[in-house]
Amino acid sequence: MVGSLTATRILSLSKEESLKIGPNHNYALKISVEVMRKTVPLALVNNGSALSVCPLITLNCLGIKVSELTPTFVVVRAYDNTRREVMGSIKLTLGVRPIHPQTEFQVINIPTFFNVLLGYPWLHSIHGYLLLSTRN
Fold it and tell me: What is the pTM of this model?
């Protein structure tokens, strides 16, 4: 879905992708990111989320142990409106070339269709680096 991330710091869709999905789509923005030298597909960018989430299964795939998490007493409402306890938080360097911001993730043991969720704190951390637009 994402056409390219160019040296001009613009995340954009190619003309073919734009025409294929149309200007008034409601599809989620999913990108691939790099974490610990591993490509993580299906990173969901969600400007409506107050936090960035790393599901436990993704954490396990990255080879990170639960004992490495920073304890937290945060309780969140999941996308299905259920209350979920956060297992802990972890700061990871997230690569979206050409930038590599450090991102704090709340780790939750939930089934998801995404591998990480990037909420508005992540979007604010990269402000000035990326501009979402459609290429002409």
Answer: 0.75
105-114, pLDDT tens digit by residue?
Answer: 999 998 888 9
In whole angstroms, give the CA distance from residue 133 to residue 28.
15
Class of domain 4-134: mainly beta
Predicted pLDDT of residue 3: 39
Where are the chain's structural domains? 4-134
Segment 8-15 long-range contacts (CB within 8 Å, at least 24 positions apart):
9/98, 9/129, 9/130, 9/131, 10/130, 10/131, 10/133, 10/135, 11/130, 11/131, 11/132, 11/133, 12/132, 12/133, 12/134, 12/135, 13/134, 13/135, 14/135, 15/135, 15/136
Take residue 110 and report the two structure tokens written for it: 């939930």
- What's the confidence (pLDDT) of residue 104? 94
pLDDT in tens, 82-92: 888 899 999 99
